[in-house]
Automatic annotation (TrEMBL):
Any Pfam family hit: Asp_Glu_race
Lineage summary: Bacteria, Pseudomonadati, Pseudomonadota, Betaproteobacteria, Burkholderiales
Species the sequence originates in: Paraburkholderia metrosideri
Protein name as it appears in the record: Asp/Glu racemase
Assigned protein family: Belongs to the HyuE racemase family.
Organism domain of life: Bacteria
Length: 220
């Protein structure tokens, strides 16, 4: 049986990724490793810290010790820590947002990125620029923080969070070729954005599809 370890920095990514794995890789066994202090520490510092990177390293080393077939990093805010972990962990590691960043870079030159926290926005923008460079694409990235959305969610007002996000996405879509949703938790809004004039990309579906491709290539 294929075993996948998913490293989470909070509970909100567990269900959407579980649903995608159930749909795309139904035979897989999933081990969820979740430490909600990771994202809190990144947000408090305003950036990825060496201490958080070290903990990501330890969780992925532990996943390898469990003899999993592949590891999925579920959080964009700590994605850059994975780059160094890959030098020490031989188990394949997939970032949830890597495929999304590559797809966005291939769609158009003007890319809009939406987040509710800056600690996710900034690494997502860097990843998109990196993928565009690898594809020899010239891009222009427009960043947007959905002001007040995260605070609304923390206060338990999910409806207000969603409305702020939808307004931010719709407005941004008027000036770009594609909109990227920087956080896994935003993916549930995609079905409500059918009227948006440009593609809106979220990471769970494409990230798990990339996970499946990586597994298939290792089997071969």
């Amino acid at each position: 049986m294929t075993t996948i370890a998913v490293v989470h920095t909070g509970p909100v990514t567990v269900q959407p990724i579980k649903e995608q794995i159930s749909e795309q890789i139904p035979e897989a066994r999933v081990i969820n490793i979740m430490d909600d202090s990771l994202l809190n520490d990144v947000r408090a510092a305003g950036h990825l810290t060496p201490e958080v990177a070290n903990r990501i390293h330890s969780y992925m080393t532990n996943a390898q010790a469990m003899h999993v077939d592949i590891i999925l990093n579920a959080c964009s805010s700590v994605g850059e820590a994975v780059d160094s972990v890959r030098n020490f962990v031989s188990t394949p590691i997939v970032k949830i947002d890597e495929a999304m960043a590559e797809e966005a870079s291939s769609i158009g030159r003007r890319i809009g990125v939406v987040a509710t926290v800056s600690t996710t926005l900034e690494p997502t923008v860097r990843l998109i620029k990196k993928k565009a460079s690898e594809l020899n694409r010239t891009i222009d990235v427009t960043e947007r923080i959905a002001e007040g959305a995260f605070e609304a969610l923390l206060s338990g007002d999910a409806a207000k969070h969603d409305e702020i996000l939808k307004t931010t996405i719709s407005t941004l879509a008027e000036t770009v070729d594609v909109v990227v949703l920087a956080q896994v938790s935003m993916a549930r809004l995609v079905p409500q954005l059918q009227g948006v004039r440009v593609p809106v990309l979220s990471s769970p579906r494409s990230g798990v599809a990339a996970l499946k491709r990586a597994l298939d290539s290792n089997v071969r």
